[in-house]
């Protein structure tokens, strides 16, 4: 999960399909502003399919729009995104969302998620976090 700007884009080959035809991808060179969750190395490139018809994401490469991007990182400075991944302009986020990302996002990273199957729910250790979504739906 990163905050970044796309500064350039180019079409690249990313291997071949089972018939030997080249697979095209759009390679966005990005300027990473902040890493919220991911590898220790900065993300330099984001790859996506060449059109939305094949689940690609289009990013503005003017270098002015900032994005919140949640994709799949390879850990080597490369990330892949599809239509199924979260990609939002930073300006479209609410003040609460921005504050939560900047100040609270890492707070729950070390806890062990435990499902709450019946009320009342209890934690068994200090690093345990209860997942109670099912209770909210009923």
From TrEMBL:
Its main location: secreted. InterPro entries: Netrin_domain (IPR001134), TIMP (IPR001820), TIMP-like_OB-fold (IPR008993). GO terms for cellular component: extracellular matrix; extracellular space. Residues 1-109 form the NTR domain. PROSITE patterns: NTR. The keyword Secreted applies. One of its GO terms (molecular function) is protease binding. Keywords: Disulfide bond, Metalloenzyme inhibitor, Metalloprotease inhibitor, Protease inhibitor, Secreted. Disulfide bonds join 116-121. Pfam families: TIMP. This is Metalloproteinase inhibitor 2. It comes from Centropus bengalensis (lesser coucal). The gene is Timp2_1.
């Amino acid at each position: 999960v990163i905050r970044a700007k796309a500064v350039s884009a180019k079409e690249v080959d990313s291997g071949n399909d089972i018939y030997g035809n080249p697979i095209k991808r759009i390679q966005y060179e990005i300027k990473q502003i902040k890493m919220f969750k991911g590898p220790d190395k900065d993300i330099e490139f984001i790859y996506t399919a060449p059109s939305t018809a094949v689940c690609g994401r289009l990013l503005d490469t003017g270098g002015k729009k900032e994005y919140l991007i949640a994709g799949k990182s390879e850990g080597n400075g490369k990330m892949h995104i599809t239509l199924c991944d979260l990609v939002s302009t930073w300006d479209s986020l609410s003040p609460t969302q921005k504050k939560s990302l900047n100040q609270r996002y890492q707070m729950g990273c070390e806890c062990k998620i435990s499902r709450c199957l019946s009320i009342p729910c209890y934690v068994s250790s200090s690093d345990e976090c209860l997942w109670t979504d099912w209770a909210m739906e009923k």
